[in-house]
Amino acid sequence: MSKGKIGVIGSGLIGRSYTMLFISAGYNVTLFDILAEQTHAAKKDIWDQLKALEKQNLLRGTLTPEKQFELIATTESLEECVRGAFFVQECVPERLEIKRNVWAKVDKMVDPSVIMSSSTSALLPSAISEGLANKNRFIVSHPTNPPFYAPATEVVPASWTDEDVKEKTIALLKEVGQIPVVLNREIKGFVLNRIQYAIMGECYRLIRDGIVSPEDVDTIMSQGLGMRYAFMGPWETAYLNATGMMHYGEAYSDMIFNIQQDFGPPERMEGPTLEYINESMRKLAGPEEDIQERRRWRDRRLTALAKLKKDMDKADAEDSKQ
Ligand SMILES: NC(=O)c1ccc[n+]([C@@H]2O[C@H](COP(=O)([O-])OP(=O)(O)OC[C@H]3O[C@@H](n4cnc5c(N)ncnc54)[C@H](O)[C@@H]3O)[C@@H](O)[C@H]2O)c1
Fold first, then answer.
1. CATH number for the 192-285 domain, one of 3.90.930.50, 1.10.1040.10, 1.10.1060.10, 2.60.200.30?
2. Which residue numbers in the chain have pLDDT < 70?
3. Kind of pairing, strands 152-157 and 138-143?
4. I need a surface site. Which of 186, 255, 258, 265 has the fewest CB within 10 A?
5. Whose CA is nearest to atom 7 of ligand 1?
């Protein structure tokens, strides 16, 4: 018995990941791309990833890779992709006119009850959906890359998004093993990228001003802050670094405020500072032409980290039962 059909539009990096998430919970997925060869490459890639996940004991859901794979259909017709789907996930390139164009077509093809969800990283849901007849059915579900190992997903409604669209999207994401974070209103950059760009901005200024090298900034993150951030955020970190938040505030608020006032204004990343960072990264991560190798290194580490976190969560859950 099928649990229902989901249409995925765009079969690049994120379209593939969403497809894998949905099939892991037993949904049928019909995958569409303007380039037919992309959907074929996507299927091959998904199969390889399913087998690798099985080997690492990180497969989601209860279905075998074979059973999950059987749930994928590909099509060269957008109409066929969305026909009969209760949920449509759009994963086309991050360009407003491309997204608006795709949604204008889908809007005319689907039933008003269908949920129309975009993977956009930064385009406002209101900007994509204004003008759609079913704009109240539109929402953003922005995953963290790679979604399989970094499950936090930002859910961003427009002011006109129906409440049930938000609730059903959250429920679906949870069902497939993601961890949704809902924004109460849309904001430029959403939350993940606002935090990420705040970090990048200060790191950039520290390098520009000759305080530290790019390698040292990465060491502070990967061997310092990042060790904690792999399993807790800045607030829990602060809470534990003092005796609760009120004590933290008493002890450090003045100092933090003082340092924050010392941060410079935003600066465009370009010119000699950017070239210097690039040279340092070439030494650290290898030249651009070999970047694929370093990406594989990153993914092996992410996989190991995801496994460690999963095992520790399981151990914690067993401990709390005793
Ligand atoms: N890559 C990331 O790290 C990441 C993370 C989170 C969100 N996102 C967002 O997800 C979306 C997709 O990004 P991606 O990295 O998968 O891009 P991608 O370039 O890997 O894939 C995009 C796919 O869309 C297809 N496409 C282009 N125009 C189309 C159209 N009109 N109809 C159907 N298919 C079309 C392309 O052929 C391609 O296969 C973007 O909005 C991006 O911002 C990306």
1. 1.10.1040.10
2. 1
3. antiparallel
4. 265
5. 121
